[in-house]
Structure formats: C-alpha cells, structure tokens
TrEMBL record:
Protein name: High-affinity branched-chain amino acid transport system permease protein LivH
Membrane topology: Multi-pass membrane protein
Species the sequence originates in: Paraburkholderia sediminicola
Cell compartment(s), UniProt: Cell membrane
InterPro entries assigned: ABC_transp_permease, BCAA_transport_permease
Keyword Membrane: yes
C-alpha cells in the first residue's frame, strides 16, 4: 500500500466516522439521560434520508400521517392521565394541536418548494418528533423497569420501524443529489465537498452538545436526571420531559446524519440498521457515557472499516464488529483497575 492509497483510505474513513459520530453520540445522549440502549436509533437515520428524498421528489411522505396518528394516541394517553389527577386536558390538546399543525404545514411547504434547506428542515422536524412519541409509548410507562426490559422494548421498536420504512417507501432505493457538487484535491486525493459538510456537521454537533450540557439550564437538568432520577424529581425537574427531550435531540441527530449520508449512497430502508450498529460499536469505547471517548471510538471504527475494505471488502463488516471484543476487554480491564483503587 502506497502513501496515496493510505491518504485516500484515511479520508474515506474519517468521512464514515463523521456519519457514525452523529449516530453514536445520539446513542450516548439517550443512554446517559434515560439508561436506555436505543437499538432503534439507526432507524431514525433511515427515516430522515427517505423523508428528505421524498420531499426532493415533490411528494408528501406518508410518514406525516404515521406521526400524526401516533401523536393522537399519545394525546389520548396524556389526557386520560391528566383527568385521573383532575387536571384539565385543554393545554395538552392545544400543545399537540399546534405541533401537528406546524408539522403538517412544514411537510406541505417542503413538497412545493425547491429550497433544500426547507426540505431538510421539514424532514428533520418530522423524524425528530418521532423520538418523544416513541419515548412516551415505550419508556415512560415503565420508569422502574430494569435496563434489560427497556432494551427489549427498544428492540421491539426497531423491529416495528424497519418494516414500516419498507411499507412507506418500498424496496426501491432513492437517489439524493449532494448538497454541493464542488470537489477539490489535497495531495492528489480527490475530496468531495459533501464529505467536508458531513465532517463539519459532526464537529458542530459535538461542540453544540458540549456547550448545551455544560452551560444551559436544560442541559444541566438532563445531566441531573441521568445521575439521580429521584433526586431530580425532588428538585422539581420533570424527568418525563427530560426523557422526551433527549429522544427528540437524538432522533434529530440521526435524521441529520441520514440526510447527509444519502447523497453518498442510495437511500433505502435498510441503510440505517448497519450504520446504527457501527455507531454503537464506536460508542462502546466510551462505555456509552463518555462523549470524547465515544467520538474517538466512532472515528476509529470509520478508519478501521475503510482499511478493512481495502484488504477484504467481503469481510469488512465482520472486521468492524469484531472491534467490540477488544473494546469490551479494554473497558473491563480499566473498570477492574478503578475498582481495585477504591
């Protein structure tokens, strides 16, 4: 392997790692705030890419009706809970109604415009809204259950969302044009501007998450709820709202990664599952709680995958998933050392 091939594979690996970073960080965000390993995180990537493709084709995605129907179910459950405690459900009806109206207006506007920004925004809002709705139906009714039970619920959600994508968009792949057709060369290596956009988005989202958790009151509330749920409740922090917010942000991050990845590959209903697993492999390096280590892990996965495909493209995924073994061994050794010190 010469230096040109090494540089080319390195650039390709960093691009892949940037995509995995958005999914991996969303997994860490959900786990640190709710203690749920959200296996369905990769499906949000699929829904984001396919919704964006539908809007660019000028068609209204049927996902809108799925989200509105799910929202109606959540409204019914919240209204019944409010009446059980003798509270008026009027505020809930207004809140859900306003959100549904905004989503519908965005979706219809995205179908009749050529603005890529509006189309991305509509797809992002639509998929991000799925996050808190899924949290309300699967996690919020089971606050005291063990992480294993919540993991099983997450697997069930993934098993529902995967065929749902096939039902809504079919098996035919969708082609999405890149956000920029510009290309430039660095040391004779051709680099697409789309790859730079993906890397920039990963860096910006990482910095935004750091600032959000470090300095904002909402971010501090999320951290407090993840450290001590009961203590957060006694301090007046609405843990249910915190969980919904974390799912909203995580779903939006995965949807964004799907929209950025779609121009590099064909958007199809299977694309998110493998990307979600690779993001999980990288996130395990940080134990699903450490953002810097998880970020380093997903970039390691991206570079390792790129070089593995050079030597054996058929075994590329097998080599990538085998990284879990040394990562878990390293994590267990490190944890054992910390326990011995205490």
């Amino acid at each position: 392997m010469d230096w040109f091939s090494t540089l080319f594979l390195g650039v390709d690996g960093i691009t892949n790692g940037a995509v995995y970073a958005l999914v991996g960080l969303s997994l860490v965000l959900v786990y640190t705030t709710t203690r749920v390993v959200n296996v369905a995180q990769g499906e949000f990537l699929t829904f984001g890419a396919l919704s964006f493709a539908s809007f660019m084709e000028g068609s209204l995605t049927s996902l809108l009706y799925v989200v509105l129907g799910t929202g109606a179910v959540c409204l019914l459950l919240d209204a019944l809970q409010a009446m059980r405690f003798r509270r008026s459900p009027l505020k809930l009806v207004i809140r859900y109604g306003v959100c549904g109206t905004i989503l519908t207006a965005l979706a219809y506007a995205a179908c009749h415009t050529s603005s890529t920004v509006l189309q991305m925004g509509a797809a992002l809002a639509l998929v991000a809204t799925m996050g808190p709705l899924i949290y309300r139906l699967t996690v919020e009714p089971n606050p005291g259950n063990s992480p294993v039970v919540l993991l099983i619920c997450s697997v069930g959600v993934s098993l529902i969302l995967h065929p749902l994508a096939l039902l809504l968009w079919g098996a035919d792949p969708r082609t999405v044009p890149p956000l920029s057709d510009l290309r430039f060369s660095v040391a004779n290596v051709d680099i697409a501007m789309q790859s730079v956009i993906i890397l920039s988005a990963a860096i910006v989202m990482t910095a935004a998450l750091f600032l959000f958790f470090r300095f904002s009151l909402v971010g501090k509330a999320l951290r407090a709820a993840s450290i001590n749920r009961d203590g957060a409740l006694y301090c007046g922090i609405p843990v249910g709202v915190v969980g919904r917010l974390s799912y909203f942000i995580a779903a939006g991050m995965s949807a964004l990664s799907g929209m950025l990845l779609a121009p590099l590959v064909t958007a199809n209903y299977e694309m998110g599952f493998v990307v979600g697993l690779k993001g999980f492999v990288g996130a395990t390096m940080g134990g699903l709680i450490n953002y810097p280590l998880s970020l380093a892990g997903v970039f390691l996965v991206g570079v390792f995958e790129s070089f593995s495909s050079f030597f054996s493209s058929s075994l590329r995924d097998a080599w990538v998933f085998s990284l879990v073994i040394p990562i878990l061994l390293w994590r267990s050794t490190r944890l054992g050392g910390e326990l011995n010190e205490h």
